[in-house]
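FYI - complex with zinc ion, inputs then prediction.
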Amino acid sequence: MNTPSAPFSWIKPAKWGVQIVPADTWIDPSRAVDRALVTHGHADHARGGHGETVATPETLAIMALRYNTREGAVPVQYGETIRLRGGVDATFIPAGHVLGSAQILLEHAGERVVITGDYKRRADPTCAPFEVTPCDVFITEATFGLPVFAHPPIADEMAKLLTALAHQGEGSVLVGAYALGKAQRVIAELRTAGHSQTIYLHGAMEKMCRLYEEHGVELGDLKLVADHTKGEIRGSIIIAPPSALRGTWSRRLPDPATAMASGWMRVRGRARQRGVELPLIISDHADWNELTQTIIDVGPAETWITHGREEALLRWCELNQRRARALAMVGRDEDGGQDGE
Ligand SMILES: [Zn+2]
Ligand SMILES: [Zn+2]
C-alpha cells in the first residue's frame, strides 16, 4: 500500500466521535458538526443539529421523529457505497441492533476500517442481521464487555414472561422497555412465541411502534392504555418506558406485576434497585461471547475498543495475540443511556 502517512492516520478517534480526516466528516459525533455519518437512532449516537446527516432511511426517519431533524438528511441504503470528500468510500452494513442500525465500512488508500456502532449477533425479527465484514481496523463497541455477561436465549425470557402472565389471572404484567428497539423487539418476540392477544402501550411507545410498522415490522394488535378501562386490560401485557414502572401511571392498570427487559437485568442488584419483580435479560448488544467471536470472525489486523467496558476485551485481545487499543470517548453512557440497553 502506497500511503505516504502512517497506517490508518486518516481515521482519528476523538473524545466526541470518530473523525474521517480527509472527508472532514464525523461518525456518531456527540456534538453538532457540518457532516455526520450516523450508525443508528439511539440518543448516544444520533443527535440533531448537523449540517448534513448521512444514515439509512430508517435511521433518518427515527431521527426525524425523535429530534425533528429533517434538513440535510442524506439517505444511504444498506450495501450502497457513497464517495465522501478526500477519496473516502463509505458503505452502510446491517448491525442487527435496532431498525436501520448500521456498521460503517470506510475505505481509503487501500485500507479498510469498520466501525460497528452498537450491534448484536442474535436473530431479531425487527431488523436486518449483522453481517461480518473483513477489515484492517475493527472499531467495536463493548457495552457488555465482561465475561459475566452471557445473554440467555430470548425464547427463555419470553416463556418466563408468558408464564408470569398466566399466573396473573385477572391482573396484568407491565414490562418496562426502552422506546426505540427494545419495546418493538419484545412485542415481535411475543408474537413469535404465539402470543396473539392485544398488547397495550403507554402513550410514549406509540409513535415508534407505528414507525416500525410503516417499515414492514409486524407487531400485531396494539392499543393504547389511555383508550381503555382497567377491566378491558385484565389479563394483558402492557409495554411502557422504564420510568413508568414506578410512579402513579401504573395505578390505572389491573394488579400489575412489574417486569423489565434489559441486558442489565443480569445484574440482580439493578433489578432490585428498580423494584422489578420479573427481570427479563433481553439485550440488543453483543454479549461477551458475541464480542469475542465477532473479533475472531472479522479477523482484523487491529481492534479498537470503545463504548463500554474496554479493559476486559483489551486483555482478551492481548491474551489472544491480537493487536488492540481502547478509545476513550465521552457522551457514551456505559449504562446504556436513555435507550441503548
Ligand atoms: Zn450506544
Ligand atoms: Zn444503540
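The CA atoms of residues 207 and 294 lie 33 Å apart. The chain is about 25% helix and 25% strand.
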